[in-house]
Amino acid sequence: MHEIYKFVSGPLVWLAFIIFVGGSLYRLISMAILAKKKDGLVYEYFSLKYAFRSIYHWLIPFCSRNSQQHPWLTLVTFAFHVSLIFTPLFLLAHIILIKESWDISWWFLPEGMADFLTIVVIAGCVFLGIRRIVRPEVRYLTNTSDFIILALVGLPFITGFWSFHQWPGSTFMGILHIFSGEVLLVMIPFTRLSHMIFFPFTRGYIGSEFGAVRNVKDW
Amino acid sequence: MAESAEKMKTSKIIDKGIEEGAANLSSKKIEKVIHDVLQNETGARLKTYVETCIHCGLCSDACHFYLSHDKDPRYSPAGKVKQTIWKILKAKGKVDADFIKKACEIAFTECNLCRRCAMYCPFGIDVSYLISIVRRICFKLGVVPQYIADTAHSHASTLNQMWVKDDEWIDTLFWQEEEAADEIPNLRIPVEKQGADIFYSVIGPEPKFRSQLIYQAAVIMNTAGVNWTMPATPGWDNSDMCMYIGENEMMGRLKKAYFDTAMRLKVKRIVMGECGHAFRSIYDQGNRWLGWKMPPIPVIHAIEFYYELLKEGKIRVAKKYEKGVTFHDPCNIVRGRGLHEMARYVTKAFTREFIEMHPNREHNYCCCAGGGVINCGPPFKKKRVEGDRIKAEQLFAAKSRGAETIIAPCHNCHGGLEDIVHHYGLGMEIKFLGDIIYECMEKPESMGE
């Protein structure tokens, strides 16, 4: 067990981060080159001012008409995404590991808060999964990969919560936690989780078209 | 589980253009055409849009077809994309003629390319662009609804939408000049005037069916003392069904003839009549095909022109239109140009009682006629009107608060709303903004009184 732990918490971490960062850069750069070659107008019409205007209005909850029309979903998705990104970055256990390795550290979440945000992510996954089943318009678009993606996101949080609270089998759960986190990172650039890296560009482009060319809001 | 919900939607509508086009297809031809279009004409946008869509369904409520069909997911924007371009990509172009028929019907008659869903997708995915790719594939396969294909043929043969012959066009202008001169003796429709400030352009249906609009425009121009002209040659029509069937090459030819005409006349600006799709064609799509980032000569829509005339005091209000009015925001000049506030300024100036319909401005529901859907003709009329029940509900709500007249500054919207008003028995009247201005403005002879 110890050997496996050493492996997943050592070389695999490096590998996961290299693939995540490298893969994301690869996706962005290759898409930028493809756009230059085939969709030159994206560059022509892209306007930083209107791109930011659009991104801003879609990053603030209840700013767009659509987010006002679905208040519960808006609450859940914003809480879900914020917790998803915030928790791993400011988790004490993660910061301790980094401190031990590189002797750097930063502000961390109080324990109860971290627990709460973790539950938000897990509950968010459950909510979004159920929504995929019960809402006809979402069910129609859903395929198996959508559930796999939700599971990929939920797993590091479930296992992390489990091992932190020292529930039975916490050593195994700890290893699974690290491993599933690594899988998640690796999958981001190569699955629809890449909406994380492409959001600013799709949003920015349509924001530019609506703002700079068509003189109208896009939210 | 997704599969069980996905019943194949089989259409009962028989369209000759679709049927006969599909009869000529082989799986080899389909695969080759799809491959060519995807390889040569699409790139990062298609790839990103398809891979970024997280299947959240949040675009659904944007679509009038979806809302009008009791939220049937097959009519949601992403639902239509799923049934067409996703399948094409997944099958790598290996689809059969029946699939192309179904995709053609969806792309041409169940989406107005109104871009409302682009405002509801959290990622700003432009579904109208994706549906346009499907139309382009159908066009290159020769599978296009007959009526709109015929209209595109008219564009190709005559450079106008309605098979108007060169002499008929000039004759119509002279005829309207004569008619209007009965009302305003010195009125002129200056044809081929070099160096005029404004080239006034209309769409094919104006000389064909609605020549009184040319009359009214002439009265407004003469009253305002505008230095304007209209060409005597092809290139006068700014409408464009080629844009909507995916015949981009012909769209380019049309726009080139159009801008060339404006340059030949050495005008400073182009003002166009109250049409939406034509504005999209000259301001947004046709110019791009020709490599002009923005139109080579400034083009403004009638709404903006009326607004200018009113602000500068060149037209004045003689009386207020008596009936309660509501304003229908056309997609191509509101989501396409942001003219909603100017339109309201002019409307309110000329009317006594203004009643907003809800939602309004950039969030207004589509008329269901635009995007070439009404041009697909009688076979699809029932489907089109039933596909916009939500519009009837929206209009009825405005009527119940006192709106008797709908102002719709777009030809397609007019046609669509007329059918909706008739089908649902709404009993409302539809007017162009120019109709109201013509009726209520100060005219030269009344100024002389």
What's the total count of β strands of chain B? 8
CATH class of chain A: Mainly Alpha
What would you say the CATH architecture of the largest domain in chain B is?
3-Layer(aba) Sandwich
**Shape field of chain A:** globular
The SSE string of chain A, one letter per element, is: HHHHHHHHHHHH
Portion in strands of chain A: under 5%
Could you explain the architecture of this structure?
The complex is a heterodimer of chains A (219) and B (449). Chain A is mainly alpha-helical and 219 residues long. Chain A has a single domain (2-213), classed as Fumarate Reductase Cytochrome B subunit (Up-down Bundle), CATH 1.20.950. Helices cover 80% and strands 0% of the residues of chain A. Chain A contains twelve helices and no strands. Chain A has helices spanning 2-9, 11-38, 40-45, 48-59, 65-69, 71-89, 92-102, 111-134, 136-139, 144-164, 170-187, 195-213. Chain A is globular and about 60 Å long. Chain A starts with a helix and ends in a 6-residue tail after the last helix. Chain B is of the alpha/beta class. Chain B has three domains: 2-144, Fumarate Reductase Iron-sulfur Protein, Chain B, domain 2 (Orthogonal Bundle), CATH 1.10.1060; 149-308, Rossmann fold; 317-440, Rossmann fold (3-Layer(aba) Sandwich). Helix content of chain B is 52%, strand content 7%. In chain B, α6 (77-90) runs antiparallel to α7. The model of chain B is unreliable at 1-7 (pLDDT under 50). At the A-B interface, α2, α3, α5, α9 and α12 of A face α4 and α6 of B.
